[in-house]
Amino acid sequence: MRNQVRLLGLLLGGTILGTSLSAVKAQEAASPSTSHETAPAEETVSTIYHPPAPNTPQATGVNAANLPDIDELPIDQLPQAVPQESANPKAEDWPAYGRDDRATRYSPLTQITPENVSRLQRAFVYHTGVLQPKGKLNRLAPETAPIKVGDSLYLCSATNDMMRVDAATGQEKWHFHAHESYDAIPFTSACKSVTYYTSSTAADGQTCHNRIIEATLDNRMIAVDAEDGKPCEAFGHGGQVNLMQGMGWSVPRFVGVTSPVPIINGVIVVNHEVLDGQRRWAPSGVIRGYDAESGKFLWAWDVNNPDNHHQPDKDHYYSRGTPNSWTAMTGDNALGLVYVPMGNSSADYYSAMRSDAENKVSSAVVALDVRTGEPRWVFQTVHKDVWDYDIGSQATLFDYHADDGSIIPALIMPTKRGQTFILDRRTGKPLPDFPVVEKPAPAGVMKDDPRTPTQPWSVGVPRLGFPDLKESDMWGVSPLDQLACRIKFRRASYVGEFTPPSLKKPWIESPGYNGGSDWGSISYNPQTGIMLANWNNVPMYNQLVNRKTADQLRLIPVDVPEYTPRHGMTAGNAAQAETPYGTLVGPFWNEFTRVMCNAPPYGMLTAIDLKAHKVLWQRPFGSARANGPWGLPTGLPIEIGTPNNGGSVMTAGGVAFIGASTDNQIHAVDLKTGKTLWTDVLPGGGQANAMTYAVNGRQYVAIMAGGHHLMGTPVSDQLVVYTLPEQATK
User: What domains can you pick out in the chain, each with its CATH number?
Assistant: First the structure.
């Protein structure tokens, strides 16, 4: 198959480059600690702009709805929570982003099977009504996965409008308008899902007994009545909470929430993304807890102020530049923990100015106590990350049955490296059957920013990745293009995974910052122990530049007036203000044809039996039909493997459903063999997690076909829902 893929590789081009959503992170305020600086000030100061001082007051307009500050609630006054729909979902429902509290993305529905899936037809299409405004830079990437409770779907648009839709007909029941400014949207306009919550203080039948809660791109938290979509007046201030409180200086677009908020034992836990690569003293990556009943503040985990869990007063702010978490979190009600996949500190490609506390939790999964915000344990997946290997996937929880008969509460943590870590979720230690070893890593080449001597490798789970690159693997549309890529390879620094950043010449980053696994995460069948993962093989080609060169290239952070928004197929170059270096960031491709220099496949789909520690099947994922050199589609339905973002759903019927790839299709896959059983062309890119549910005995499959500006797929506002013909369900 590999040879066949090589023969077809020339068909692939620019529209298939996947990128990370991390593109576009307290209380003691006077100024951030500079004890970790290693470069003279003259090497860090720009000559073309002046970043605002970290203690500058918050800019007007960052508090999107001009909301008053929220009060703090003592934890002993937190109401007792009632059981939630996601704790033990009905077979026909999908009440949470990952279907259940464990984020398995596994449905027990069996009506759709390998034998009848080819008969699927569209049941309805629902339009969210949100498209790119005229004259505005395209930032749309909805990524929305609906949730389903009872007879209704609940979802959010790319700009945080919320809707309730009849799950059988697509008829809209209500539509809440968030009135979000398009200019306040971070690098990517995404709302992955909403959260369904049943109140313990509002009785059944009363207003806001059942609520839909979201956090927004412009940093609000909003709660509405699930029945009619009207704001829950007793929540926050008229149904809203200002999440910019305590954050200090920022501007619209710098900070935003793209993932659904988990609620554990009545505590809403909120994380947020911070636009990558802007400045060392970017807004904080603080994680916070709020009361799900009143919206009042409960606690904060501020990495550089670990002993102070309160809100800052008006003259202070959470510590700046700390690692942020932007992807979906997972909670464990029994243990009272929330599992937070962390990114790295601001200035992604330079680590010398980070504190010891930041280095400890960077690119780690952190278990926080949901009553106090105190870390219970930390497991790090990359040491001193300078490759943007922040964890983009959501942790999946499961019970591991050990050989001695014991049951261990465990979690699966996929990573962009393609390493999958299996941990005891009580302690954060690797399970004995899934050991983690420290292997030697390449030495650094920047004297002021040394690398760590080792990095962690999960040796009990097959790696989602290919061997290290070789010059002979270089690719191209023609022999001349291949030669150009070989020259590009030779000119770069590359010593395998963890090749360190360099100033004198480019370095190749492989895996690239979009996978392995990214925010689509994995699906897991708890009955069989089988994990299904889609992943990427898209290296990057980066180079550090000194501050003088960065100024010449006009690398400017988002919070200064000279900043100009840009569009691109990657997260783009990084200003890294207040450090000695900016960073040039791009794909490892031929700039003329926009064809990757490494040979395909660029995207894969893999089924792993975790009990047997082996790959059941693995194949290229995504066809060449919408891809080609210069971004021109070939129209060929050949499964060659394209970059992909968005996740799968596994069903007890033996079929998995996934969009994700840049062929703009939804795919039904046989879970036994990996064979594609059925596809349908979507009106836009399927870069969202698919889901399934049932109404009145009929099973449906839904996917948001909203496209993704970073992946070059067509943008739309359409949720597409499928079902079998009525006679086929009997």
Answer: 2-729 (2.140.10.10)
